[in-house]
Amino acid sequence: MMEAMTDTEVRTFIEVTEYWVPEEGVLKLAGGNYGDLTEFKAASGQTSFAKGEGLPGMAWAEERPVVFKTLDPASFKRADAARAAGLTSAVAVPLFDGKALKAVLVVLCGDGEDRIGALEVWQSKDNLLMLEDGYYGAAKHFEFVSKHTHFPRGQGLPGAVWAANTPILMRDLGSSYGFVRSESAGQAGLTTGLGLPVPVPSGETFVLTLLSARGTPIARRFEIWDARAARVGKDGAAVLIDGICAREGRLWAAEAEEPRRAAAWQGLIGRVLGSGLPVVDQGVAGIAAGYENFVALPIHSKGEVSHIVAWYS
Amino acid sequence: MQKLVVIGAGMASGRVLEHLFEQAPDAYEVTLFNAEARGNYNRIMLSPVLSGEKSYAEIVTHDDDWYNGNKVTCRFGESVVGIDRARKVVIGENGEVAYDKLLIGTGSAPFIIPVPGKDLPGVISYRDLDDTNAMIEASSKGGSAVVIGGGLLGLEAAAGLAQRGMDVTVLHLMGHLMERQLDEAAGYLLRKDLEGRGITVKTQASTKAILGEDKAEAVLLDSGETLPADLVVMAVGIRPETRLANDAGLTVGRGIEVSAQMQTSDPDVYAVGECVEFDGQLFGLVAPLYDQAKVVAAALLGEDGAFVPKELSTKLKVTGCDLFSAGDFAEGEGREDIVFRDPARGVYKRLVIEDNRLIGAVMYGDTADGNWFFGLIKDGTDIEEMRDTLIFGPSYQGGAAADPLSAVAALPLDAEICGCNGICKGTIVSAIEGGATDLGAIKATTKASASCGTCTGLVEQVLQVTLGDDFQMPASQAICGCTDLSHEDVRRLIKSQELKSQAAVWQELGWSTPNGCHVCRPAVNYYLLADWPLEYQDDPQSRFINERKHANIQKDGTFSVVPRMFGGMTTPDELRAIADAADKYKVPTVHVTGGQRIDLLGVKGEDLPAIWADLNAAGMVSGHAYAKGLRTVKTCVGKDHCRFGTQDSTGLGIQLEKKLWGSWTPHKVKLAVSGCPRNCAEATCKDIGVVCVDSGYQIGVAGAAGMDVKETERLAEARTEQEAIDLATAFMQLYRENAKYLDRPYKWVAKVGLDWVKERVVDDLEERAALIARFELSQTIYRKDPWAEEAESKSEQYQPLADLTLEAAE
């Protein structure tokens, strides 16, 4: 049933995922998935970031997602440890609840000829979404095309996320995703795209897209949960509205099927719902379909967790 | 083993097979025909496939393994050409198959509107995967798409194509989108959402033709507008596919007629799904199809079962558009509405109650409780006990309603409250803290609300926010029971929030009724057409009968007809035409009015279009004697004839009337031009009166000679005719833009003050020019003779529906 992703043992596009939360005026590490990179993990545990300092501090201060395509010691505090671990680029995404910063998610990637994928930040300018910045690994042609593409509201994955103000998962990127990029997406082997709105205090529109390729997938399972009271009731639960899994196929509920539901603090999704914070974990019980790694992000809107996006590898 | 042949591998027949194999895997040997070259997939998920949010692989319901496992002989891609009931065989393109039982699940075919160009390449319907793939293929080239039909399917196609990068226009014949599932208010919010994603929506748009040489290139509308279209999607509806059943001699109405056991007129032939008609009903949504499937499976196994149609609910599969509708939400006698709106969140909920039972629900934006309401509708639950809190849903916990003051409380201190005098919120708050605790004191100390008065409501709200319970809001000046807002508030909000339709007003201003009432509708209709002449379309249903009929109804049910005589001037030809019309239509009374017009009284309703046509033919237009608009410009004969005359008063009167006629105003407007201060045209008691003097023209406004009698006040003195016309026009427009509906100019001027009017009309030349420009813009729409339009296009509406003369006592 699933053609979009195959379940073979390959390196994933993202090497490290971690999140930082504000505590006593600085950002402190609250969780992460470092794989084998124990030294980089240790270096991270000893670090904190003031507002404006380093990559997470910059995302906090500038209230927007930030992409570093090189890890320069002048701006990236852990540059030495990163170089030693083979990490070459990073993206930081601030998670705001209204004006309050809840956390900063940071993902780090390594270079390599075979690393195909995309982490993109889109920003609205003159009523169009323009590429603010992005990391594409070896997908250079797709990077070039993306830089010269813009999306009106409602068009393509970024435009659809903007218009619907909800995370959206798209399949078969080679034959969809706005007519402009589909061809080069197909050539680059990009198959599945997750787009999510990144609300910031200024009200400016940012959309983050994660485009996953078959060879070096960002994840093998993606989920979108809806937690808006206006959709799922006032009991503080979330329902799985869309998802795709290399092991289990489609995850959305067809007509006359009950969608999966998670109450606050019930399982890993419940932990995100209850705390309003990301969860990044590995090798723990409760990760669906036998996957090792789990990342889940809350999206805060109008004073509630409106959606949760999760990915598994 | 018995032989079962199934025609059509759709969702309904697929579900029959599932039930059958579950309960008795060895009961039948099954042959499945499908014209599409594939098996059963979840057709209702085609829209997400179109948008790219799902893949085809994900929506396959039965794959090859399933068919193999259940030993189904699949004849996919093969059409059935006939059914021979006498021999009990189904005739396929590649040969016959015998059956003991036959199940017809041929589904439905899209309805193609019979317009020229419908067969051009590039014109497609939206029913199956091939259509979906054709749309995906077409969208890969970009360009424009026109979707004909604003129902569920059409809108899902539109959203998907837009997401794929096409410029999409939706054409819908009716007044609002999805009119079968949504009321106007929800339709408005849906439209807003779709427009927010770049889709152009045109309602009341009728397709005349699809243009193009060897492929579709454009769509031509009845209005004459042409829309470029590389792709045209027809999604106007479906009709049951009954050809095979018909040819086989089964009983077919609109669909294949079936019993409650889903049996056709032949006991060995069953039918299921969109192709059937049961009890006069057709079925297009999936829930009843699944119910039917269960019954068919039972019948095939010789078990009892009966299909009972249930209430249906609707959801639209466009990510980010959250709507829900169920039951019957038409307005009707004995039905009550409960309406909840939250303009800030774009939420609308309406419940329809009859005999203490919920019979319909429409929701937009907040649909969490949809299924709960749906349950109440299906079960016919008595809701009397929970009526007051019903709309808040099952988990209502006594939460407070939205606070209308919160918006004012949230305004920063430097936000301007009184635009006329430039007073900001901070100044008012300081004045309140300094002891000004009512509106009068605020006016006296800050001048806020002391000029035009449109900000009075805001100033009072600042008082309320600042003083809390210590400030008593004055008694409600709401337009009517549908809203707490005053006329002034509504006018201000229509402008500032750019509300351009009635549905927008009801929703964004939180109306408590679905569509307003007889009090607020005429006012809102006027405000909208005055403020948005190009965008808003006048709604005749929101007008009083006289304006609807373009004639004054008399107490015996007949009408009066008054042709316009510009400046009170006429000609022998016109008089002859009037006399002829009076003879021809047996007009019993001919009267000369105080406004220098001839009134034909006692015209029968059904004669109106004909008498108008006759008068039109003689060069005359409607005198608007029935309208809240310009009535008459009365003149004296002026200096050409009168020895006291100082200027050409008739000439000026004619020019004024030619400029101003046809414009709608808050109340009627009467003008006069007198050639000298002797004032034979009685200009000094008109809404606008010009008195000519040797040095020029004295422009007076705000006179009255009705229940109140009042002399005009001097607005200005004009040196030239043009200046006089400009001043009158600018005054008219200021009145049109600012007065409360049904306030004559003298009442309005008393409220805003003549100085305020003068500042804009007389002193500020730029503002005067802008007022005139806006008036002219509006006149491009409204300076038209309604008689000519009505006589031509709608004469059948004037035919009597019943003999009302028998009820003349009313």
UniProtKB/TrEMBL annotation, chain A:
Pfam families linked to this entry: GAF_2
Domain annotation GAF: ranges: 37-109
InterPro entries: GAF, GAF-like_dom_sf
Superkingdom per UniProt: Bacteria
Transmembrane segments: none
Stretch forming the signal peptide: none
Name under which the protein is recorded: GAF domain-containing protein
Organism: Marinovum algicola
Organism placement in taxonomy: Bacteria, Pseudomonadati, Pseudomonadota, Alphaproteobacteria, Rhodobacterales
UniProtKB/TrEMBL annotation, chain B:
Record bears the keyword 4Fe-4S: yes
InterPro entries attached to this UniProt entry: BFD-like_2Fe2S-bd_dom, BFD-like_2Fe2S-bd_dom_sf, FAD/NAD-bd_sf, FAD/NAD-binding_dom, FAD/NAD-linked_Rdtase_dimer_sf, NasD-like, NiRdtase/SiRdtase_haem-b_fer, Nit/Sulf_reduc_fer-like_dom_sf
Domain NADH-rubredoxin oxidoreductase C-terminal: 313-380
Residue ranges of every copy of the Nitrite/Sulfite reductase ferredoxin-like domain listed in the record: 553-618
Cofactor(s) the protein needs: [4Fe-4S] cluster; siroheme; [2Fe-2S] cluster; FAD
Domain Nitrite/sulphite reductase 4Fe-4S: 627-767
BFD-like [2Fe-2S]-binding domain sequence ranges: 417-464, 479-528
Region Disordered: start-end pairs: 788-810
Residues of the FAD/NAD(P)-binding domain: 3-276
Keyword Amino-acid biosynthesis annotated: no
SUPFAM superfamilies: FAD/NAD(P)-binding domain, Nitrite and sulphite reductase 4Fe-4S domain-like, Nitrite/Sulfite reductase N-terminal domain-like
CDD domains registered for this protein in UniProt: NirB_Fer2_BFD-like_1, NirB_Fer2_BFD-like_2
Binding positions for [4Fe-4S] cluster per the UniProt entry: 636, 642, 676, 680
Recorded GO MF terms: 2 iron, 2 sulfur cluster binding; 4 iron, 4 sulfur cluster binding; flavin adenine dinucleotide binding; heme binding; metal ion binding; NADP binding; nitrite reductase activity
PROSITE patterns: NIR_SIR
UniProt KW keywords: 2Fe-2S, 4Fe-4S, FAD, Flavoprotein, Heme, Iron, Iron-sulfur, Metal-binding, Nitrate assimilation, Oxidoreductase
Cofactor details (free text): Binds 1 [4Fe-4S] cluster per subunit. Binds 1 siroheme per subunit.
Gene Ontology biological process terms in this record: nitrate assimilation
Binding site residues for siroheme: 680
Pathway assigned to this chain's UniProt record: Nitrogen metabolism; nitrate reduction (assimilation)
Protein family according to the UniProt entry: Belongs to the nitrite and sulfite reductase 4Fe-4S domain family.
Name of the protein in question: Assimilatory nitrite reductase (NAD(P)H) large subunit
Organism whose genome encodes this protein: Marinovum algicola
Classification lineage: Bacteria, Pseudomonadati, Pseudomonadota, Alphaproteobacteria, Rhodobacterales
